[in-house]
DNA sequence: GCAAGGTC
């Protein structure tokens, strides 16, 4: 019997799986992908079990195809050596090196047994460098790379999978080498620098404290640390505004001064007085317009994490683990994706029909089908992902979800529905007012919803309604009140975990699968702590950044990732060999570690003092940090400079004495911590 | 024990 899929689409340089004789073992990256592959290869496959692990068997005459799966990486790098620098490492099964990896034992054992009886091997993991490494290491340690092939597909649709298995290539050694190299580089930098800083603390203070540094975590820490320092050194500056209240049709409206020319308090009061004397303003323009707001694209993981944070206050890692659970329950598609596009082959009509069976959504889906008249074309975003589409509901009916699982599931369903809905029409009006004879403009705005559009399905962005009466150009409006408002410039806000994740995305470090975990790791190390207003950096976190900036500046910068990427590309192109790259990295590290070791004592002292386990003899008069200059640490020294510098602004704007200035800024909420500490220390009074 | 990467 000839398989119905076996005869079409072969080409030169390619091998069809159907031409391989004997037993062929196909290795997928994850269980769900294995099932899809089995479905694509045959309409009749047997479901089998080994070591509690499911795999699939296809029999077709003399052919036997086994489709089994990995669960991500089954091997990891490790070393037997202690201390640093360390440059020798081996690949070993993950369950050996990492605790809590027992499940990976079962999968590896199953693959090992299947490998021993197979004649050919196909690496059918995701088509990226990690997938190339995952499949390669399994075949290398349990099978035979000389009898192995690579299947290349970028989506799990049946037609693409069938095509991929008719066009197998040799193992993709360029990708494998690039992937192995990425692992080794991250390991070399991460393990060596982590050990270096841990060991200095240990030899200085005899305390074993876990510290770490890495290509992704350290630049992220540096980013938050910059915000922390700016906030702690911040001194607000007063800015003034004049706020007239007018009356129109019996309604009081307060106006906003735009393009304020006011610099000093005196100016502000003079302008207020001038308006009071005038008693009215003239309408300079009145404009009404509508804008059309398109639905947001379907969710990728970052967008989902952002919305769950904004609407429910969930941390990115919480949202991610909820989404993973929903995926394992088959309620949603694969969540670790960057794509904002739905799969083109998806039957939207039948999926919506399935969703309409879920009582919460019956009415919404019925409205959507009416509104679209069955024309179902979703909006999509620009972001793409080579391996997965955007997150969408599968139509499987949820049972027994917790309230938090429901919340995330609901966001995903509604965002999916909204993608098919029409634009929302928002109505806005703006009135501008002038003071006769002056180049000064005040403004009032109104806003309303003319057509709900997609907000009906995804109401979490719905704009608020603000009524503004109609004005005529040239109309004189009576001013009933004028006040002078003093506001203060604001420091950068404390960042949130989702803000950190968004930043990591924007500079392209980490991946969908790892960003949330790496953020949590910074908290675990006590480099960061949560406050009610967002993430704060601890003294230890600041100290780690300072130290690494001096001794391992590469590791603090986002550019190290760009550099690695370039090296990976060169390896893929065959311009450079993995061994060369590793030798170079080793030489760089060797040199940096030598310089670091010369200052081991100092670094150990600095980090120990930041850990609060040591008080330096020349310490800052205010805190426990080492002295930098004039009896102060760098931070309090800078705060003192800042106090003197910003006083010039205050003197001009408020006309206050230095003493008054200090009293005023001490009371302001956004004045930085280090500034307050300096004021209390030098200028007295708690 | 230390990284970042996959997935359960």
TrEMBL record:
Its cofactor is Mg(2+). GO terms for biological process: DNA recombination; DNA repair; DNA topological change. Residues 23-157 form the Toprim domain. InterPro entries: Topo_IA, Topo_IA_2, Topo_IA_AS, Topo_IA_cen, Topo_IA_cen_sub1, Topo_IA_cen_sub2, Topo_IA_cen_sub3, Topo_IA_core_domain. It comes from Thermosphaera aggregans (strain DSM 11486 / M11TL). Keywords: DNA-binding, Isomerase, Metal-binding, Topoisomerase, Zinc. Residues 172-593 form the Topo IA-type catalytic domain. It is an enzyme of class 5 (isomerase). This is DNA topoisomerase. Belongs to the type IA topoisomerase family. The keyword Isomerase applies. One of its GO terms (molecular function) is DNA binding. Gene3D superfamilies: 3.40.50.140, Topoisomerase I, domain 2 (1.10.460.10), Topoisomerase I, domain 3 (2.70.20.10), Topoisomerase I, domain 4 (1.10.290.10). Its EC number is 5.6.2.1. The keyword NADP does not apply. CDD domains: TOP1Ac. It catalyses: ATP-independent breakage of single-stranded DNA, followed by passage and rejoining.
